[in-house]
Design a protein that fits this description.
With 471 residues, the protein is mainly α. The chain is 69% helix and 0% strand. It is built from 24 helices and no strands. Helix 3 packs parallel to helix 18 and helix 7 packs parallel to helix 9. The protein is globular.
């Protein structure tokens, strides 16, 4: 027997049950889980077969796919700038110093994985985009200064905000849309009226839905992380920490502006004045959308790098990390087109509604939203598709409409744990592949899915039906 294999086997025997399970899932996913692009292509194939079974012709499926292929371009650029802005800020010298301080809190490899997971979930309540950037920066610094941290486990922990509680927080696309009269489609407004944030996000039931997965996921992070002697580290995988490099000095008169902070200060001043106006006009938290966050990170990157030459060098290094986002998001847009063109979503929705009762609808909404999320990984866009059927069913069955929105929010995040769509920006930022995260995120899904569905059913009993209030 290979001595190394024997040593690893003996090491696994000393691990706890959850840690052994985590190692097995991680090893399995590295061998069998496809690249994120292959995953997306397989999803296209599966949905296409489903559309053909629904009676669509090959030509119609192709047209549905092609017509929708570019529909996510604005969102694709937003996600690319999540990577660019996060990277530019991450490798600036001031932020490197701040992260060094934050990275000192965990004292053990397992504690580090749990710490990153908890912080990723906590920050996702403010913004899922910020969560990915923050967790990506933090995990890389921790792994840089601490030996024995498994890069697969800690990378999966950094993604937990997107797989657990983000949609229950302040960047919840569905809740924000339903609370804004101008954002609710007219046909849907006739069914639901306006559902305020006080009815969705700011309830004690939502707080319970947030705390439960945060506690469970943090425990899983700690329990499943392998011991130092079994860990696969960033260093062993050949994955190096990005560093801010020396930009030198101006050699010619033409280079002087590249090294002068003058232009940086002008751009930053314009950006800050704009941000003040946005927050004043929209009213505080309402301004915290993805465009605003990306703009804030670009302006912050300019200021932190100080000189245009340093900023541009950081941007140039970040662009290759956006490749997966740029080529794969259009595939998901095509999937959306096939689903809508074939009516698969409508059939699924009507089926789930037909088997529901007043008591079971919340749990069934959760199951349906999670399943559809594998093929339509878009928080706000998917809610527009689901809402008319689900809220109409809730009205007929006398189920609290606001809780149906929260059922969607809680379950919508679950498929993210195995769908590489949302992993792409984080993977680009920290330099890992979907197969390296999937083992540990699958483990989280196994524990979280039944608990989430059960909690949706249980808490629904505390939410009495309230007729829609028409604006």
């Amino acid at each position: 027997m290979n001595p190394k294999s024997s040593q690893a086997s003996a090491g696994q025997d000393r691990e706890g049950a959850i840690a052994r399970l985590g190692i097995r899932f991680a090893d399995w996913s590295e061998k069998w889980f496809p690249d994120a692009f292959v995953f997306a292509a397989l999803a296209v194939l599966i949905v296409s077969i489903g559309a053909l079974a629904m009676g669509r012709t090959p030509s119609q499926v192709s047209v549905d796919f092609g017509k929708s292929f570019w529909n996510l371009i604005p969102f694709t650029m937003q996600m690319a700038f999540v990577v660019i802005g996060g990277y530019v800020v991450a490798i600036s010298k001031p932020v490197q110093k701040l992260i060094v301080v934050l990275a000192k809190f965990p004292k053990t490899p397992r504690g580090a994985v749990a710490y990153v997971g908890f912080m990723a979930m906590l920050t996702s309540l403010l913004s899922w985009g910020f969560s990915m950037i923050f967790a990506g920066i933090l995990m890389r610094e921790i792994c840089k200064r601490m030996e024995g941290v498994d890069y697969r486990a800690i990378s999966a922990a950094g993604f937990l905000g997107l797989g657990t509680v983000w949609a229950l927080g302040l960047s919840s696309s569905a809740a924000l849309m339903m609370a804004t009269k101008g954002s609710v489609p007219p046909a849907l407004l006739k069914i639901s009226g306006v559902i305020t944030l006080e009815q969705t996000l700011f309830t004690w039931q939502n707080l319970v839905m947030i705390l439960t997965p945060m506690v469970i996921s943090t425990w899983i992070c700690y329990s499943s992380a392998p011991s130092a002697h079994l860990a696969k580290t960033f260093a062993s995988a050949g994955n190096k920490q990005a560093e801010a490099d020396d930009i030198g000095v101006a050699q010619t008169p033409g280079e002087r502006l590249e090294f002068s902070p003058l232009l940086t200060l002008v751009l930053v001043a314009l950006g800050v004045i704009y941000l003040v106006d946005v927050f004043a006009t929209k009213g505080g938290l309402a301004a915290l959308d993805l465009n605003t966050y990306n703009f804030m990170f670009i302006i912050a990157g300019l200021l932190l790098h100080w000189r245009p030459r340093a900023f541009l060098r950081a941007v140039a290094k970040s662009v290759p990390m956006t490749g997966g986002v740029l080529i794969q998001f259009p595939l998901y847009a095509g999937i959306f087109g096939i689903l809508m063109g074939s009516g698969i979503n409508e059939v699924l929705a009507k089926f789930f509604v037909s088997i529901s009762t007043q008591n079971t609808l919340p749990a069934i909404v959760g199951v349906y939203s999670a399943i559809l999320g594998l093929f339509l990984p878009s928080g706000g866009g998917k809610w527009v598709v689901e809402a008319p059927y689900l809220l109409q069913a809730a009205t007929e069955l006398k189920v609290n409409l606001a809780w149906v929105v929260q059922c969607y929010n809680a379950a919508e995040a679950l498929p993210n744990l195995i769908n590489p769509f949302w992993m792409l920006p984080l993977m680009g930022l920290v330099g890992v592949k979907a197969r390296e995260l999937a083992g540990y995120t699958m483990l989280q899904l196994i524990f979280l899915a039944p608990v989430t569905i059960f909690m949706l059913w249980l808490l629904s009993m505390t939410m009495p039906y309230v007729p829609a209030v028409m604006p």
